[in-house]
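Q: Two folds, back to back.
A: First:
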Amino acid sequence: MLIQKIYNKGSVKLNEDELLIKEDLFVVFDGATSLVKFINKKGETGGKLASKIDSNNIMTSQQLG
């Protein structure tokens, strides 16, 4: 099966979304722009961190289950 992905940049500098593709699992995490203008040392916003954490949790639960 051929899987393609397209990321369209939103209105912020960093794309806060995460895309998880693993075997038959396809998930899009919408990292909504934070109300607080937090940016960590890696340049990640709160929205990016939230979508990344969710993606990592799903990936971990898939590996354990």
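A: Second:
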Amino acid sequence: MTRTSTPKQVPTAGYLRRTSLRIIAAVVMASLSLLAGIVTPGTQAAAPTKQEIATSVSNATNAGVSMASANNPPTADVVQVASSAPTRAISETRSEADTPADPLAGWTAEQKVGQLFMVGVPVSGDQRASRKAVRAKHVGNIFLHGRTTAGIKPVRKIVDGYTGLVTKKRTRNTAMFVATDQEGGRVQVLRGKGFTDIPSAMTQSKWSKKKLRKNAKKWGEELSKAGVNLNLAPVTDVVTSAKSARKNGPIGVFERNYGYGKRSTWTHANAFSNGMRSSNVDVAIKHFPGLGRVKGNTDTTARVVDKVTRATKKDRQMTAFRKGINAGAPFVMMSSAVYAKIDAKNPAAFSKKTINKVLRKQLGFEGVVISDDLAAAKAVQKWKPSTRAVKFIQAGGDMVLVSADATVVAEMIDAVVAKAKKSPAFAEKVDAAVLRVLAAKERL
């Protein structure tokens, strides 16, 4: 996504802070619709349009909720209408009589929450749990998990089998994000006929930016042919030296880093991103605030702590992610490590300070915040699956990645739905996250 900020149109800070996301979206869109003469009482709720999503996202941002801007969002005047209506928890189905032009009108709680999950689909092996998640739990996004050398055609067959499950009842006919890990080197899910064997990021960092961008465009075209529209790459973690790389379990050991603490970390990560996006494949820079300074791997280690990284402009990790965000990264993946100098009590994925204060406000990120795997990663096993999902959304996250074990997704979704129905404040977070996801899906 080309990073386009929605114009900031703030009537008064006090007023907007008192106004909920749902009321703002409803009032603004109802007024615009009436002006355009398109509101007809009793008509069936339609899927949200690009303009409706963009306007809702814009006004929610102005109200103090950081939102993703839609691609090329239109400018709209803020309509000020005082309201004393109380905020309410998420309902089973909001009727059009309640919110005439609400982008989420007609969506059930389960349908909305389903958009906030990405379930792992094994590229080889049993897929029953994954299919059940889409069919029964309204999951709106999938992640191709594991390793395969079958080539493009068999992968495309798998993808089509899931995108074909999209219906109005399950997902409001909303397109899926189909993701995978196609970094290169030892982290490349898809291989075989039609797929290039991508070199490691360390090798890519030695190329010119032009060469890397050209090759990434080709790799993106291969993914696109297979039906993949989101690559959970590139790694934007800063590894400081060859010596430290040998002790850096998640990144340096596998040569997933773009050089050693130099400009190549962000210049080449951005070149990779630009090439992918020119092939209509979105990217997720990862793993914020960075895994380049830790020893343990969060996939296999219970508590991984970064004792160095700070939320300052001079910190290399912050610089690398800021550069990626400014270049238009549409997704940022959160780390599951703990950052002692930022929030010593919570993993970054569960930290309101890390997501809202540092990533959203300090770095200005307005896109989709996605977790690392919250299913089988050792770093999050301290919490029940249901608790992990709730804590991530509560902290300000948007999309829960459940990649390594699809059997836990039902428990996670049930917990988020139940919390949203009970808590008006949490329901607002769910709605805000859904609007960010829908805004990102306008590119599909």
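Q: And?
A: Residues 109-441 form a domain with the TIM Barrel fold (CATH 3.20.20.300).
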